[in-house]
């Protein structure tokens, strides 16, 4: 049976037309009948029960009544006219509906003798039960009752939508007619083995039921089916990417040689942890097979990912290949470059930095060293690969802070030219549901063990009035020869918000701690000045480093034991966790002090309490996801997250797991969906999903 109508433009659907179609497309991306069927309700009103007017009682719950209009009066009040409608119940009894706004407009909607339904909360005035501004439906219209006596869907709206009359009521009518005309033509896309194996409701029943549910049970089965389907198609794309990646040729590295050995045994002053060794073995296993590695290296702040990545780069160099090390920003690239210098110089190797803010001469020299193969590692931002920096022999690309790339970018990154092995590092612990969606195509190595001797960072929340105490504590730590960070959210003082900025903070601290050296870094310093200050801090010449969030990722100063965050209520949870990760990087006890006033924001309070409660990155990120929801978790634009219409990654993790299992099983069974039983699925996938990049947002 043909399903061509699914691709039909909505403007030709009964009850829509040009104007509404334009607004619908613009506001909600609804263009085709397929989109329209998936314009899901945002919530439902349960109007299944009609309360007899006689039995009305005052109360906070919304109720539905049905009756006949007995009188319609505009009543002059003291300073405001009001509309009063008297409704007589089907089994007797009278009540009032009252409007103070839209009096004339509502007045026109009613005539005496009309049969109508009111929905609202009931109050009692004198002897009258009354509803103020109730929702209402006229029941003498033709057709079935779509607005009363059932579970009624409410649709996403907005001003533009209501300006062209696309209210929930119209949408219901449009969809009802659409189902009447086409509903039976919808065919099932899922093969029987998935339908039965995962106990799914039939697709067309689910679509009808999501808009016009008969019962709550039916609604919840419909939701499950549609969420499954949505997540399934995303996982299908990931399963396919995974399958394809396994076939892509990549450089075949030799066994690890002298550089790798020397780095691990001589340069590092410690033994790798079990988790680091495992991760490194997994990487070494991948890069020797001759197919491209696509691996995510996941581990909490300070767990030792960079060290593993450097070992992998040395392995590349042993095999005659160079590596690219990419950070999301220039500042972070500079910091990684400084770290890499410390690691590689003892081996007589020179990593090169390539960023936009370099002088021409610096850049030329670096480019030359990379081009000739003299330098084993180039450090920079993503421009390293995108801007045609020529490598002599690129074999490995390490990408830090992977979550700022979307799936789409990743697929595109190496479409042309060589295919180096990919090692993606993320310091942001990601809830499993998000990880499966964002990195569902990758192999994963987890560093789930901290280097030995680490003591959990002690975290304290402090209000302004206890600043004296905080400074006394800071003084104690400095006296012990330890160092501290003080972080501010702003660079310049904001006139409006009267916040202390980093500069005046640094000055104040220098006055308070005259025996110690205070340094300052912020985003507006030149790269050289920043570098110089960071280096002095690392070498111990600076005791107290005042900074804006520049230091968020990548700084490694094990002797720093205090992280003092000013205006902590203004930071996001994962940002705070990253900042805290700057201390506690040795066997000394470390502290994180959050100076905050959060009386006004419940959310800030939740964030800060989570920080005080746990040091566990995964728990922090789960909490963050709960507080903010998946869309905002990474910042919507930056996330590369697919735009989900019905599934919610914060609560649908169980459905996600089974949808993923089904999708991967399918690709394993039938990689190109060629089997007859998968034909409809393949067509739907190509038409509605694959071509649109599955709605994976593009980043950048
Ligand atoms: N096995 C180990 N034993 C002791 N110290 C280690 C070990 N591995 C790493 N370190 C040290 O721990 C600190 C953090 O390591 P590294 O920078 O590799 O972590 P990371 O996971 O990349 O950190 P972040 O994500 O916070 O930047 C460094 O000072 C490093 O020298």
UniProtKB/TrEMBL annotation:
<dbReference type="Pfam" id="PF00270">
    <property type="entry name" value="DEAD"/>
</dbReference>
<keyword id="KW-0233">DNA recombination</keyword>
<keyword id="KW-0413">Isomerase</keyword>
<dbReference type="GO" id="GO:0006310">
    <property type="term" value="P:DNA recombination"/>
</dbReference>
<dbReference type="InterPro" id="IPR033454">
    <property type="entry name" value="RecG_wedge"/>
</dbReference>
<keyword id="KW-0238">DNA-binding</keyword>
<dbReference type="Pfam" id="PF00271">
    <property type="entry name" value="Helicase_C"/>
</dbReference>
<comment type="similarity">
    <text>Belongs to the helicase family. RecG subfamily.</text>
</comment>
<dbReference type="GO" id="GO:0006281">
    <property type="term" value="P:DNA repair"/>
</dbReference>
<keyword id="KW-0347">Helicase</keyword>
<dbReference type="GO" id="GO:0005524">
    <property type="term" value="F:ATP binding"/>
</dbReference>
<feature type="domain" description="Helicase C-terminal">
    <location>
        <begin position="469"/>
        <end position="626"/>
    </location>
</feature>
<keyword id="KW-0547">Nucleotide-binding</keyword>
<dbReference type="InterPro" id="IPR045562">
    <property type="entry name" value="RecG_dom3_C"/>
</dbReference>
<comment type="function">
    <text>Plays a critical role in recombination and DNA repair. Helps process Holliday junction intermediates to mature products by catalyzing branch migration. Has replication fork regression activity, unwinds stalled or blocked replication forks to make a HJ that can be resolved. Has a DNA unwinding activity characteristic of a DNA helicase with 3'-5' polarity.</text>
</comment>
<feature type="domain" description="Helicase ATP-binding">
    <location>
        <begin position="286"/>
        <end position="447"/>
    </location>
</feature>
<keyword id="KW-0067">ATP-binding</keyword>
<dbReference type="GO" id="GO:0003677">
    <property type="term" value="F:DNA binding"/>
</dbReference>
<keyword id="KW-0378">Hydrolase</keyword>
<dbReference type="InterPro" id="IPR047112">
    <property type="entry name" value="RecG/Mfd"/>
</dbReference>
<dbReference type="InterPro" id="IPR014001">
    <property type="entry name" value="Helicase_ATP-bd"/>
</dbReference>
<dbReference type="GO" id="GO:0043138">
    <property type="term" value="F:3'-5' DNA helicase activity"/>
</dbReference>
<dbReference type="InterPro" id="IPR004609">
    <property type="entry name" value="ATP-dep_DNA_helicase_RecG"/>
</dbReference>
<dbReference type="Pfam" id="PF19833">
    <property type="entry name" value="RecG_dom3_C"/>
</dbReference>
<dbReference type="GO" id="GO:0016887">
    <property type="term" value="F:ATP hydrolysis activity"/>
</dbReference>
<dbReference type="InterPro" id="IPR001650">
    <property type="entry name" value="Helicase_C-like"/>
</dbReference>
<protein>
    <recommendedName>
        <fullName>ATP-dependent DNA helicase RecG</fullName>
        <ecNumber>5.6.2.4</ecNumber>
    </recommendedName>
</protein>
<dbReference type="InterPro" id="IPR012340">
    <property type="entry name" value="NA-bd_OB-fold"/>
</dbReference>
<dbReference type="InterPro" id="IPR027417">
    <property type="entry name" value="P-loop_NTPase"/>
</dbReference>
<dbReference type="InterPro" id="IPR011545">
    <property type="entry name" value="DEAD/DEAH_box_helicase_dom"/>
</dbReference>
<keyword id="KW-0234">DNA repair</keyword>
<dbReference type="Pfam" id="PF17191">
    <property type="entry name" value="RecG_wedge"/>
</dbReference>
<keyword id="KW-0227">DNA damage</keyword>
